[in-house]
Amino acid sequence: MEFLSSIPAGGTLFNAAAIVAGGIVGLIAGRFIPEKAFKLVFQCLGLFSIYLGFSMAGKTQGVLVVMFALLTGAIAGVILDIDGILARFGDSLKRRFDRGGKTGSFTKAFVTTSILFCVGSLSVIGAIEDGVKGDPSLFLVKGCLDGAATIIFTASMGIGAIFSALPLLIYQGLLTFTAKWLNVFITPSMMDNLSGLGGLIIMGLGLNLLEISDIKISNLLPGVIFVLLFSAFI
Q1: How many Å apart are CA 41 and CA 155, to the nearest integer?
Q2: Alpha helices, DSSP H, located in 81-187
Q3: How far apart are CA 112 and CA 211, in angstroms?
Q4: DSSP 8-state class, residue 212
Q5: Cα-flanking dihedrals φ and ψ of residue 120, to 5°?
Q6: Residue 37, Cβ neighbours under 10 Å: how many?
Q7: CB 100: neighbour CB atoms within 10 A?
């Protein structure tokens, strides 16, 4: 704990390392998991994602703020083609590191886990705690949870899940290094609305895992920025 506190963005580094470690365990364990069990694993992850998202969405303080942030973020995401960028990045990683597998499976694992691990108020709160107070304890908890989830994702979807450590390093690292000035502006109500928006995005991810929908979740991510801006001015 003290060792991580002395390292810049130590909590994020631990979080990323836990994902890689979980992925390695998952690759080994995946050899012993029957193929027919994979679909059930996806369904369990989908159900849990919906439950987690519903719990987070219930914290929303400004329903209209979250709704307009989600809509505005979706439009911005489509214009920026975030889903396409992530998909192409996932495909390029697949061609470089996993030439024997299916491109679609690798990319799906990469995009799904990247969103699941990066979206949520815990990433922001953990960054504030780590950046301002030098306390990485929240990221230690998040790292253990993400590492455990990566075991399941890697065992069922393949090596693509391990590479979610890359966007997590960039995202949480930047949040941590800018946390000193972010902490001045972020209020409890803003965090509640951020949690609500993150919950909706994770619920959509769960619906995709259950194959009920095909929502381009990546294109909703700019809503995270808009919900903070709208909450600050309304």
Answers
A1: 10
A2: 82-97, 103-118, 121-132, 137-157, 165-177, 179-185
A3: 13
A4: S
A5: 140, 150
A6: 11
A7: 6
Q: What is the dihedral of CA 170, 176, 180, 181, to 10 degrees?
A: 30
Q: What is the pTM of this model?
A: 0.73
Give the Cα separation of 144 and 107 in Å (integer): 23
Cβ 111 vs Cβ 208: under 8 Å: no
Q: How many CB atoms lie within 10 A of CB 101?
A: 15
Residue 132 burial by Cβ neighbours in a 10 Å radius (0-12, 13-18, 19+) = middle
What angle (nearest 5°) sits at the alpha carbon of residue 170, between those of residues 211 and 56? 45
Tell the burial category of 21 from Cβ atoms under 10 Å away from its Cβ (0-12, 13-18, 19+). middle
Q: What is the per-residue pLDDT across 21-47, written as a single tens digit (0 to 9) for each? A: 999 999 888 777 776 777 787 788 788
